[in-house]
Design a protein that fits this description.
Largest sheet: 4 strands, antiparallel
Distance between the termini: 42 Å
Number of helices: 16
Mean pLDDT: 92
Helix content: 40-55%
Number of strands: 13
Strand order of the largest sheet: 2-1-13-12
Length: 479
């Protein structure tokens, strides 16, 4: 990055009340018109999003793993209930695509601590030093993340960088973090090819059914990519780099034309001809079948197109956001599962006679899109439609806590008189039960051709989007 760019970043200051990713565009581009006061039931109905338990769960893992290795070399990904490491996080190498979500969860708690302390229940003895201790944990966990801003081997730069480092900039004004975010956006943009009109998602895709490894022939794009565009828009507007903005918009239009089907469901994976941009294959990699609708993929579409509209205000993207959202909701409403039908199946078309697992992460991702869409539609004076999306979001959150909230109710220990700990200590909940995560019943990949299938577990990004949904409700004044 040139010196002029660096000086420009140094002179920037974060907005004092700016919303965290992905809400920032809607707040910056136009004043938010507050919706009507929510009925008191929301604070009660969704109280599990704001308990001491969710704070203590994240805290316990953060302190325990840093005691083993600081700075961390591996990051939490998933939690099984059956393996030798049952009920504890399985960690992945630091450069795995999910590495940003656990630090992002810490920063979600930091936002509550700094801006909404009434929603951060703690023993009184811990509160005076808690924010300082939490910020130290946040900063320790992002040390390896900072070094990833120059990566050009992945499209997951928004997932890796924004949950923690953009929030570090927005909450603390740390210019180093802003530089990391901008550099990451430039790195992501380097994967764009105008012949396809899209950013390359994966360099290769290999399972037991197909193998695409030749980047000169195959150009792979996945629906998940919609949620990495927010990084390009944010950095583009921060620095005045129109190229980043144009790449994001072109990519979104390509995804809309090729990955979104006529009925507003989505494919997971498209393979383009790398030289001509023509479609070669329409596939799944993590869903049930090529023709089916993988629920988390549809959720990425919900959130991604909604984010894209907040930046562009292009009605094409608002229509896309509403339409993919209505498709998601229609599949929940028509579900034939016996109970908690608004906790999505891992794939909307998975046969019920196979006892398909759920995916709590898909529900939480979609909820974040629905809440943002509610906010947009209120500002567009479409209150009735806005209320529909809010109501569905609330139902998904309620049913998810009923079905998937871990039975381990973590709490902070109250220190004895005179005893000092570097960090507050978390004890296990009732009957000594232990589960590292907040939510259960997520599914990372249940595709029958996958080299690694894992399902019905805790998942780090299910918890992150659970916490982020709670923060959105606080920012919107709905709890």
């Amino acid at each position: 990055m040139g010196s002029a760019q660096e000086n420009k970043l140094e002179n920037m200051t974060p907005a004092s009340s700016v919303a965290s990713s992905p809400d920032v565009a809607a707040e910056k581009q136009k004043p938010i018109l507050r919706s009507q006061p929510a009925p008191p039931r929301l604070g009660v109905e969704l109280s599990e999003l704001f308990t001491e338990n969710v704070v203590a769960k994240i805290w316990r893992v953060a302190v325990r793993e840093l005691e083993k290795q600081n700075p961390p070399t591996h990051y939490p990904e998933y939690i099984t209930t059956t393996s030798p490491n049952a009920n504890y996080y399985t960690l992945r190498e630091a450069d795995f695509w999910t590495c940003g979500f656990f630090p992002g969860s810490l920063y979600a708690l930091l936002e509550r601590c700094m801006k909404y302390p009434q929603f951060l229940p703690l023993p009184a003895a811990h509160r005076p030093a808690f924010q300082k201790q939490l910020l130290k944990l946040c900063r320790d966990w992002v040390v390896p993340i900072r070094a990833m801003d120059t990566r050009t081997d992945t499209h997951d730069m928004s997932f890796i960088i924004q949950p923690a480092l953009r929030m570090d900039w927005e909450l603390t004004g740390n210019h180093e973090s802003l530089k990391n975010v901008v550099t990451a956006a430039e790195s992501l943009a380097s994967r764009y090819d105008e012949r396809v009109g899209a950013i390359r998602s994966w360099d290769q895709a290999v399972n037991y059914r197909y193998s695409f490894t030749d980047m000169e022939k195959d150009y792979l794009v996945i629906i998940d990519s919609m949620c990495n565009l927010d990084l390009l828009y944010f950095a583009g507007h921060q620095t005045g780099n129109q190229k980043l903005i144009d790449i994001a918009t072109t990519h979104a239009n390509t995804v809309l034309k090729t990955i979104v089907r006529d009925d507003w469901s989505t494919y997971h994976l498209l393979n383009f001809d790398a030289k001509t941009g023509e479609i070669k294959n329409q596939l799944t990699n993590q869903g049930y079948r090529d023709w089916s609708t993988w629920s988390r993929g549809q959720a990425w579409a919900v959130l991604g197109f909604t984010q894209t509209y907040t930046w562009t205000h292009d009605p094409v993207f608002l229509n896309a956001a509403i339409s993919v959202s209505k498709y998601f909701i229609s599949r929940l409403a028509s579900s034939k599962v016996d109970a908690h039908s608004y906790v999505p199946l891992w794939d909307f078309d998975a046969p019920l006679d196979t006892s398909p697992p759920r995916d709590s992460s898909a529900g939480m991702i979609a909820v974040n899109g629905f809440l943002l869409l509610h906010q947009i539609l209120i500002s567009e004076h479409q209150a009735d439609e806005a209320t529909e999306f809010l109501d569905v979001a609330v139902r998904i959150m309620r049913e998810t806590t009923e079905l998937a909230l871990s039975r381990d109710r973590a709490k902070f220990e109250v220190p004895l008189d005179g005893r000092k700990e570097e960090y507050p200590v978390v004890k296990d909940g009732e009957d000594g039960k232990h589960f590292d995560g907040i939510l259960m019943h997520a599914t990372a990949n249940n595709n029958e051709d996958a080299h690694k299938r894992y399902w019905d577990h805790g998942l780090v990004y299910a918890d992150y989007y659970f916490l982020e949904a709670g923060n959105k409700l606080m920012r919107m004044g709905l709890v």
